[in-house]
Amino acid sequence: MRKAHVSRNKEYKKELKTLASDFRVIHREEVQEAIRNCQNYDDGRRKILKVYEMVYL
Fold this sequence. Notes:
By secondary structure, the chain is an all-alpha fold. The protein has one domain (2-56). The chain has 3 helices and no strands. The chain has helices at residues 2-22, 29-37, 41-56.
């Protein structure tokens, strides 16, 4: 059970890195922190999009 959780954790963090890269905010410290510390994909996605809105909109 623990191994499946770690695998899923790595998977969504990889997806969050791709999302941040696509939105061109991967270099921002607050995005890196969100990816490192988020508890699930939706939480990380929300934080990345918030940074994107701050920077570009």
